[in-house]
Write a structure and sequence with these properties.
CATH superfamily of the largest domain: P-loop containing nucleotide triphosphate hydrolases
CATH class of the largest domain: Alpha Beta
Strand order of the largest sheet: 6-7-8-3-9-10
Distance between the termini: 34 Å
CATH topology of the largest domain: Rossmann fold
Radius of gyration: 23 Å
Largest sheet: 6 strands, mixed
């Protein structure tokens, strides 16, 4: 199944929350949806789930509008805690599974399976508010998974998790994607997004600024060239086309280099100042790319 977000627009008075947002999430894909606070990520996800209505545009699953029946097949994990704090974990997950159409016995079986997978099976008899924030997050993911959804939509699923819990949740999301489920998640942990996702979308001020594979987007961004030339004066690279000095300290210079620039010309210029001990090119990380896109 393919989840299609098609030209979504949303305003709150004079504030433009979304302005023609479009992208898709394909079968078996982990899609990273990144942006600053207030960029429009949560609004997009809420519209996809039918929690909010768009002013224009639509959301489709395999070409079909997302109505109530389709929404029952989607697993959603909101950024805010969406659980009943005084209700016991097991009873709550079973109740939510039955709301999605599972029988009582199917719900009990699914709850046991997913709580064991997420490492919280021993907390079934505890109330949600007695759990740590990390375990509450695991319960919230279990609630999104317990009905075996056809699509997963997760808003900041890694927030508040320790490294072990991040690994567990990452493995689960990768497994679901490998089973053919389209998975979209937002996160401020861009190194994690870069590691898990083949494709990402970057949103800023309600507009999609970039959508594509991580490798393609990184290749299109400005690379970083590290040059260690101990005798080179400050500003030695000034004037070279497509080159901007980012940092210069004790002969170590970090340059921002546009795509297609001849690095041999840069090396020649550096050698004119004296010996060069290091000359290494680094593709921008997703974090570097995000800063460039948002600042543009």
């Amino acid at each position: 199944m393919t989840l299609t977000i098609d030209n979504l627009s949303k305003r709150y008075g004079d504030t433009v929350a979304l302005d023609g947002v479009s992208f898709d999430v394909r079968p078996g894909e982990l899609f990273g949806f990144v942006g600053s606070n207030g960029a429009g990520k949560t609004t997009t996800m809420r519209i996809a789930l039918g929690v909010l209505a768009a002013d224009a545009g639509d959301v489709r699953l395999d070409g079909k509008p997302v109505d109530l029946e389709v929404r029952r097949t989607i697993g959603y994990m909101p950024e805010e805690r969406g659980l009943y704090p005084k209700m016991k974990v097991g009873a709550q997950l079973s109740y939510l599974a039955q709301l999605h159409g599972l029988s009582k016995s199917e719900a009990i079986s699914a709850v046991q399976r997913w709580t064991e997978r997420l490492g919280i099976a021993e907390r079934l008899g505890d109330t949600v508010d007695s759990l740590s924030l990390g375990n509450q997050q695991r319960v919230q993911l279990a609630a999104a998974l317990v009905h075996d959804p056809n699509v997963l939509v997760l808003d900041e699923p890694f927030s508040g998790l320790d490294p072990v819990a991040v690994d567990v949740m990452s493995e689960v999301l990768v497994e679901k994607a490998h089973s053919g489920v389209p998975v979209i998640f937002s996160s401020h942990q861009l190194d994690l997004v870069q590691r898990l996702c083949r494709r990402v979308g970057i949103i800023a001020a309600g507009r999609m600024r970039a959508v594509g594979t991580v490798d393609d987007l990184r290749a299109g961004g400005d690379a970083r060239l590290v040059v260690h030339a101990p005798q080179a004066p400050t500003g030695w690279a000034d004037g070279l086309p497509g080159v901007t000095t980012v940092e210069h300290d004790h002969g170590r210079t970090v340059l921002s280099v546009s795509a297609g620039i001849d690095d041999q010309q840069i090396l020649k210029t550096a050698l004119e100042t004296g010996p060069v001990h290091e000359f290494s090119l680094h593709q921008p990380s997703l974090t570097d790319l995000f800063r460039e896109v948002v600042a543009a």
